[in-house]
Amino acid sequence: xxxxxxxxxxxxxxxxxxxxxxxxxxxxxxxxxxxxxxxxxxxxxxxxxxxxxxxxxxxxxxxxxxxxxxxxxxxxxxxxxxxxxxxxxxxxxxxxxxxxxxxxxxxxxxxxxxxxxxxxxxxxxxxxxxxxxxxxxxxxxxxxxxxxxxxxxxxxxxxxxxxxxxxxxxxxxxxxxxxxxxxxxxxxxxxxxxxxxxxxxxxxxxxxxxxxxxxxxxxxxxxxxxxxxxxxxxxxxxxxxxxxxxxxxxxxxxxxxxxxxxxxxxxxxxxxxxxxxxxxxxxxxxxxxxxxxxxxxxxxxxxxxxxxxxxxxxxxxxxxxxxxxxxxxxxxxxxxxxxxxxxxxxxxxxxxxxxxxxxxxxxxxxxxxxxxxxxxxxxxxxxxxxxxxxxxxxxxxxxxxxxxxxxxxxxxxxxxxxxxxxxxxxxxxxxxxxxxxxxxxxxxxxxxxxxxxxxxxxxxxxxxxxxxxxxxxxxxxxxxxxxxxxxxxxxxxxxxxxxxxxxxxxxxxxxxxxxxxxxxxxxxxxxxxxxxxxxxxxxxxxxxxxxxxxxxxxxxxxxxxxxxxxxxxxxxxxxxxxxxxxxxxxxxxxxxxxxxxxxxxxxxxxxxxxxxxxxxxxxxxxxxxxxxxxxxxxxxxxxxxxxxxxxxxxxxxxxxxxxx
Length: 660
Fold this sequence. Notes:
Elements: H1 2-28, E1 31-34, E2 37-43, E3 46-59, E4 62-72, E5 77-88, E6 91-101, E7 106-118, E8 123-132, E9 137-140, E10 144-147, E11 153-156, E12 158-162, E13 167-178, E14 181-191, E15 196-199, E16 203-207, E17 210-214, E18 217-220, E19 225-235, E20 239-249, E21 254-265, E22 270-281, E23 284-300, E24 303-320, H2 326-339, H3 343-355, E25 423-436, E26 440-450, E27 455-459, E28 463-466, E29 470-473, E30 476-482, E31 485-502, E32 505-519, E33 522-529, E34 532-540, E35 543-552, E36 554-560, E37 563-570, E38 574-579, H4 617-620, H5 630-635, H6 639-658
Antiparallel strand pairs: 1-3, 2-3, 3-4, 4-5, 5-6, 6-7, 7-8, 8-9, 8-10, 9-12, 10-11, 11-13, 12-13, 13-14, 14-15, 14-16, 15-18, 16-17, 17-19, 18-19, 19-20, 20-21, 21-22, 22-23, 23-24, 24-25, 25-26, 26-27, 26-28, 27-30, 28-29, 29-31, 30-31, 31-32, 32-33, 32-34, 33-36, 34-35, 35-38, 36-37
């Protein structure tokens, strides 16, 4: 029984092999399906059939059609002449002349123009193409260009088309145009089913005046997404960027950069570093995370300096003024007005007014709103109020009888205000924030900045070190910026200033709120408000000898080059002087004193060790690799010339628009 089963299995196996062999033999045979006339003849001693047509052959499930064919039966080839076509599944090849090697399944097209078309409207043109009818693979060389139904172009010196995989491969001098993008690469593979081009080494691309390069990636035409990897570089009018890989969605104007990122702002002299960056264009926003660092170059007193900001996450965004939420604008305005209040100056103005015998409501200097001599409208006494008639002037004299002006009721006149398009910048730094500048260092948990109030707000246990020996701490801080520099600092809640004196002695000021005024990057004045305490050490013959302890409502200190020069005390002043040897160790520090010098970044390498990549702009502005599409000009005459003319016209229009 087992032996019989084995014989049945072997019999089936041999039957299958025999059927396969028969099918292969049948496929290897070429058949003439139709012709108008067949003539037997001899060419160079070989039997030949001259087939006049149109002639129609079938081989490997492939149709060969031509006007005239010379079929060499002895050597198994067909020479087809005139209106030659190869039709196989979804592939159509046309040309003037074809040499078909039957036993090799190879159609060799030669002539002035050979065209290969697939069912998706992709048309490849060349003069030299071989097509294997069994494997359904085309081989082209000596230059070719492929254009799709949407007008996108890829050309190269040689390459292949694999019909079964729906894949074009372009090799050597590869150039591509797609949706206003231009590319060159060593190799581009184009999947027609996915509408995706895959790039290899030495890939470069252009979009108007923008340039980018990499050693790999892809472009999906269907959804207009780009991906580049391996040493990615990009350049626009204002920016340069480097990263390991980049994804760009053209429709959403959304980019993601990853790995060893540097973005250079060539206009403002600023840099962004990190391992992950996400960018949206409308509204514009940039989020950097994983080793995020922002670097700005600043000039002070004709000397260049650097400001480094490091955080777990940095977020930068812009909005036009009319797009900013109204509550945000109101809050920012109130915050700035409050920050600019100067209690010490107001108190001095009040006392000066009282001393000179003038009435004062304590709101500021004479002539200021609410100050002595100011009207309710904010002007001085004697200023004309709105709605008052000018004394001694007849208003009728201002009329011109010869000019008749028809006016409309105010409520019927439409008032259309142009939207305020001023660009407002926002910067947010989240968690483990460190800032380094040669003369100032900052540490906090989070930082917020907005052009609305030109204020940087520091949260959660912030600390500022000025000239190393001055330390400022508080529950939160606000720094008012002016012309890119610190102008005023506010310390809100548990404000504490400690200034290293000598040995283990620190001059100290403590108050619920403090305000620091900066000049040329240094603290020039420091105010302690709302109940202040001060502990200052005094030297005798360069040795600390006394400690002066003071309590009062307000203290204002004047500093020069980081050194305390003069103090002013206001109201309820208590003062005690102690020889240093009589002062207990625990009394040498005010309550809550804590020197945090070990947390201070010593240099910028405590924030990041990245090196700034030098600009490549001068090497890419006039690139010798910009595609010229010589093969496309040859095989699709006039097409690329029209594209270039259209792009030049559009760039001129964009340039003119930018000048308005």
